[in-house]
Structure formats: structure tokens, C-alpha cells
Design goal:
The protein has four helices and two strands. The protein is an alpha+beta fold. The chain has a domain of about 55 residues.
Length: about 100
Amino acid sequence: MYCQLSDWYGITRKQVEDNGGRTLFLQHTSLEDALRSCFPDFDWQTSRFQEEGSTPRGYWNDDKAKRRLLDKIGRQLGVKTVCWIIHFKITSPTFTVDRLVLNS
């Protein structure tokens, strides 16, 4: 039994088509697109959709999508702090900096 919008993440396009929803995809390129159109206020997460085992074409070209996934995996694995090491070298008559460490 489905009780909330997030239950749609477990449904594939093929399931919708096989249950009478084929014409829905004449107007929408994916199940995600149709759901976003019908329920624009819900915080849909593209990576959770089951589009025959893959995310929509071009999804991983977006750096924000990659960051969302890495943040999610990090939370699941217990990563609390990311330490970024930026390597660069500044040389002047008064000082030299070889690297900068930032914690976020």
C-alpha cells in the first residue's frame, strides 16, 4: 500500500506504462518529470527514482547532483567533517605558502 509521495521512488516507468499510464509519457520524458509537474512542492530527489536501474540521461553531468550523492553516502558512512587540502604555492620576498587546509 502506498501512503506518501516518496513511495513513487520504488515505481518504474515500465510499471506505470504496464498499468495504463503509457500516454503520460507522450507529454513527459520520465516518471520523475511527470511527478515534478503534478507535485511541484515536493522535494524530489532524482537519484532515488527507479528508471529501469539508472538515472535520467545527463544527470551525472551536474556537479550538484554528484555533491548530493556524495553528501548522502558520507552521512550513511558517518562522515562528519570534510577536510579540503588545496595545494598551491605563493612566493614573495616576505613569505611562502605551500598549502591551505580548510575544514567544513
